[in-house]
Amino acid sequence: MDLELFGTLGPACHDVKRLKRMIESGMNGIRLNLSHGSLEEKQDWIAALHEAQKETGQRVTLLVDLRERELRIQDMEPLDLETGSCVGFGTDIPADRALCSLITPGMTIQLDDGRVKLRALNLNADGSWDCEVLQGGCLQGRKSCALEGAPIPFSPLCEDDLKNLDNARRFGVTALMVPFVQSARDLETVRRELTHRGLNLRLYAKIENEEGCRNLEKILPLADMIVIARGDLGQDTGLVRLPGIQRDLERRCQRGGKPWMVVTELLASMVQSPVCTRAEANDVFRAVADGASAVMLTNETAAGQWPEEAMDMLCRLAREGLREREALASAVCDGRPLDH
């Protein structure tokens, strides 16, 4: 079978030369996160991708990650937060009032994939919250926000998403990644908008909270690929439970005959190092050996210091995992005893 091996387009890899090398390593798909800019705003990056495809003669899936449902704080200057201090969420940390309205007293607020954690204390008259910093750090604008135990009531599509769908054909988009899918209704909404525009795009449904996990069987028929998005999912469920939840989602996808992708921090150390850790190598290998149809790098290629090396490592590890999977399948088919 053919694996889908994705990088993420970003400041570290948006030139033709670097993209060509990543494609030659085996990258056959690339994600563009529209939370950081529209298709029109990133048209130079997309043009470089199309040129790299032309020069290599290889087709690459352009997968755009929609904006809505992925909760984020607003633009801000870097803010150093000290553990034990107090900070205003919605003031010191800018956030829209719709997001603030989901918070309840005592709720844990995780920012930047859990690197910064707050506890909500008091609601102010202007809708902002006084919060205690449980885990400090340097917080930058447009980082992710996860609210402990809170379902996300917003539409799966926002106005910016609809504008990007209007431009999808012009920029050669071939697939959509839908954040925080919680029900079949979410994907039905997206499918209607695609049909309205005459677009036939594959849908990658990101499972990022417990609500999505609970409703997986209803989501499966409407998705082309299930994405086990371990960043926000790990924030919602807790890191200790995450490995078991990942395994459960994989088994349910397998039973339902639906391909799945594993993503988030597969080679996180390669943001700063030219070599991954042994644990990371095992993570990629096991993901594919256990049945994943796709794996994806995010910050490693979008903002890391070694995007080409990270992509090459992902491709080599994934191919090794696929060989293992095929060898096990062959042994089972032939009735031969397994070595492990």
From TrEMBL:
Reaction(s) catalysed by this chain's protein: pyruvate + ATP = phosphoenolpyruvate + ADP + H(+)
Assigned keywords, A-Z: ATP-binding, Glycolysis, Kinase, Magnesium, Metal-binding, Nucleotide-binding, Pyruvate, Transferase
Known pathway: Carbohydrate degradation; glycolysis; pyruvate from D-glyceraldehyde 3-phosphate: step 5/5
Superkingdom as given in the UniProt entry: Bacteria
UniProt GO MF annotations: ATP binding; kinase activity; magnesium ion binding; potassium ion binding; pyruvate kinase activity
SUPFAM superfamilies, sorted: Phosphoenolpyruvate/pyruvate domain, PK beta-barrel domain-like
Pyruvate kinase barrel domain ranges (all copies): 5-310
Homology family: Belongs to the pyruvate kinase family.
Protein name: Pyruvate kinase
Organism of provenance: Faecalibaculum rodentium
